Amino acid sequence: MTNTDHRTLRRVLRREITGTIGLLTDEHDFRAMRRYDSFLFDDHSTYLKHVEAVLRARALQGGHTTVALFDPEDYAEFCANTGLDPDHHASRARFTARLAATGPTVLYEGQPLADLLPTLVDEAVRQATWEYATTLLARLGPCAACGEDLGRAAFTRASHLLARILDTSPPGERHLVCSLSGPPEALVAVLHADDIEGRTDLDETEALEFTTVLALGLATERPGGLVMRITAPGSPDRVHGWRLRSHGLQPLTAGEVFDAYCTDAESGDLIAPESNVDYCAPPDLGEEGPDPAHRH
User: Would you say which domain of life the source belongs to (predicted)?
Assistant: First the structure.
């Protein structure tokens, strides 16, 4: 076999190698990495331009690249735990490979880096929210009266409520938001559910994250709420809402939904209602009241 054949075969194989780049998304993280002599960039804007150029070049060559969020604090901890020298490019590559397996990533598909960055940050926030909510649920432990795991029971309850909401809602594209107030911090989960020929289509990861946050609200009685917006062709958008209550959801009246949407959360000032939007009482979930489980 000729050298040309060898080069051709290797070029074919290189096209099948996937890659991940760890991205420093903001100035603060970028400055933290400048303490390492092996990190050669001294300007964040220049760094981002070179990252985008590399991504474009790989895409033009048929390469498949994902972008991960590079956190300098997590990186320093990783190096300390593994005995790696943090001031070495090979250590950064090892850490990035770990991010590809465990952290939030976004596929580069030729989009401008300015569009990719917010998506990557949103993915990181989503994963952190789910991990935090999962940890708090696990810490609830067993019920003192019956021994049932409180976190698991709340998750089962939240799954049931979400299924009832989707089953009883009018057809259309549904956008659900579950929000919990602190302390120590507010949590928000979002779920998109499309109606495709009478069948609900949703992202399993989104559904897991949403159910976990809802379960935390049900189990801990944090102040919170759930809002659903339904969009369907040829009709106004419909907005429904519930308050979170112990082990259940309390429906909001149409007036309460209107007030919630048309009042600034920080200032309390009124906001003009959106056009072509109906603020409605939610559909009947078919329940007599909140599940009495673990109210003993």
Answer: Bacteria
